[in-house]
């Protein structure tokens, strides 16, 4: 992925492109929020057709019915996100000298196309039964759709950060240990979100209905095990693991002498999002999955991944650019 240093040094900063990428990486959270809310209220099949909704881009009554509003808004925001990604990829191709960054733009475009196709196929195959499984084939596609959404968020943030003025300032390299911890945190976050998507779309969010204990008798381990309980318990265990390692990452960011002000400021943001996510997860159990709280839990999870990934990406700046100062 690394390219020669002259590409970055000889090219001028492009504020318009940088701002457009930043707006795109912000708008994606509108898409994530609408998708999470649609799932939380069970409105994924509010319209049985695709790409149109009841045969129209402006279906009758969609502004008055919450289920129709959630699903159609998600589709419209996804279409807009696709247009943003197309524009971003073409803009990078025409104006960005760094080859690896142009490739990230094309990767984001491919991913958003795949996401759209999975979303549409999920609707069309909703009634397609799969022998031996309770979920239909269309319902199964909700899981990769949710996972890829978070990877797409990371791609957009990588592009936006790499176009920023801060990225061009060439800060001192950070310690290799900090980069390794960041990579571990990012990979564990992706694994946790994959577990969460599997749990969420298998309706296992209340498979263990007590918190913090797993039983009403105050035991940490569930009394009965099945797939739903197992995936829910795995989500809780991974949450504990992430709580420890993300705090460790934040401490290393704060203490590292090579960390920029932006990296240091990211440390308390990371810990704050972690605490908020933990409280939202507990509230979901205590209040029996209120749609608004469940949606917020998904969105904060995506934001936590985005911040973790962005801090890790910034820590790898010199390795990505291939600067001579990299040890």
Protein described:
The chain is mostly helical and 327 residues long. It folds into two domains: 1-169, no CATH class; 171-327, Up-down Bundle (Four Helix Bundle (Hemerythrin (Met), subunit A)), CATH 1.20.120. 69% of the residues lie in helices and 0% in strands. It is built from twelve helices and no strands. The protein has helices at residues 6-10, 15-40, 66-95, 99-124, 137-140, 142-162, 165-168, 176-201, 227-255, 261-286, 291-315, 317-321. α6 (142-162) packs antiparallel against α8, α8 runs antiparallel to α9 (227-255) and α9 (227-255) runs antiparallel to α10. The chain is globular and about 55 Å long. Mean pLDDT is 91; it is low at 1-7.
Task: Throw out a few tags for this protein.
single chain; about 325 residues; mainly alpha; Four Helix Bundle (Hemerythrin (Met), subunit A); 2 domains; globular; disordered N terminus
Summarize the structure.
The chain has twelve helices and no strands. Helix 3 runs antiparallel to helix 4 and helix 6 packs across helix 11.
Helix content: 55-70%
Mean pLDDT: 91
Number of strands: 0
Number of domains: 2
Percentage of β-strand residues: under 5%
Query: What overall geometry do the principal axes of the alpha carbons give?
Result: globular
Topology (elements, then pairings):
Blueprint (H helix, E strand, L loop, with lengths): L5 H5 L4 H26 L25 H30 L3 H26 L12 H4 L1 H21 L2 H4 L7 H26 L25 H29 L5 H26 L4 H25 L1 H5 L6
